[in-house]
Amino acid sequence: MRPPKPTSRSHNVSLWRYLKLFRKDLLSAQPQRLYRAWMAEFRTPFFRSYLINQPELVDTVLRQRPDDFPKSGRISEGLRPLLGESVFLTNGETWKRQRRIIDPAFEGGRLKDTFPAMLQAAQACVARLRRQSGNVVECEEITSHAAADVIFRTLFSVPIQHEVAAQVFEKFRAYQRQQPLLNLAAFVPVPRWMPRLHARNTRRNAREIRALISQMTTERAKQIAAGQAPDDLATKIMSTPDPETGRCFDTNEMVDQVAIFFLAGHETSASALAWTLYLMALYPEWQERLFSEAAVLDDPSFGSLPKLKLSRDVFREALRLYPPVPMMVREASCPEQFRDREVAKSSQIIISPWHLHRHERLWDRPDDFDPTRWDTENGKTCQRKAYIPFSAGPRVCTGTGFAMVEGPLLLSMLLRNFRFELVEGRTPVPVAHLTVRSKDGIWLRLVER
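RE: above sequence
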């Protein structure tokens, strides 16, 4: 049995039909041929875009010449109300300055400092689930709650039960359900001065989320000034000056950054972990192997993490099959030539981890779940050239190391205490909203061990 995959459209459609399919689901709107193509051109009356799967082209855009392919302003249209000028959306000198301030907080040594907070969030998740043993549960809700708890504990040293944290979490859930990864403005270029047509609820939720985050960052700024702030990620980022200008983030800038930390750290981790739990129910022999390995957490210390090799391999394979961010959009800042095609300035360059990770000319058995592939020559080669769940190059997600500690830890803690079983008639269907989620949730039976 193969993991579920959305059915691709098999024939060409008109632009308006494509836009209708796109709004319904980004993944199933794409043609089947993209799983074999090195490059595909999309023509519309408004612009041209190019999806690239050839590893050499992906490498050029993300690693070799990233300044020539900045993030497309089109992708930011749907996210601007919430994320403002966050590091996820900016380009050029603004982005470089933001990364110079943010990156030190996520360096290797800091992961050890954040581990106790991650462990506490995992333990709290296990305690909550004990009350639901024997029930059919919706896993995306469980993993969203756990991932949000990790973010609040590591960023602001408060559990998700904290009054403001709980409000932010609930409003983010509403925002996630309402807001697609791309809206129509991503397709139709409009002048900057024209008003953006965001849904009223989306705008209201974004305003309320930002107000709550502002409340937390303002309070933290006061604690830093008084020398009473906890040594967590928020304190580290807010008190780190840009080594070139000597300036720190002000409160408004910090609100933008916290919004993307929460969105990226909570949404992506929740998506990846929920799909991993489903895969464990689909392949119970792997679930039992991870249960046995999780015995190393009898010693719940940072030093035990390297022993969770199977858990890391399984989580890595889940990220391959269900990359949380299915597509990235860059823009050509000058005329280019890709595969003997002229690519005009301002063309949209689409890099799709969803298609790259399942490319039939790169991966052995691309649609199969096989955590052992990472020890094969094909798996090692593809991991270097065709595996980008966190992007790559200078714009690689600053929280990559964080996620690769959090994911295997939460997975092992859950499988150490519970067994997850399939529910008949509840096969999840992947769709792309802000991240790759299931159309109607991921429902599994929870059995305490």
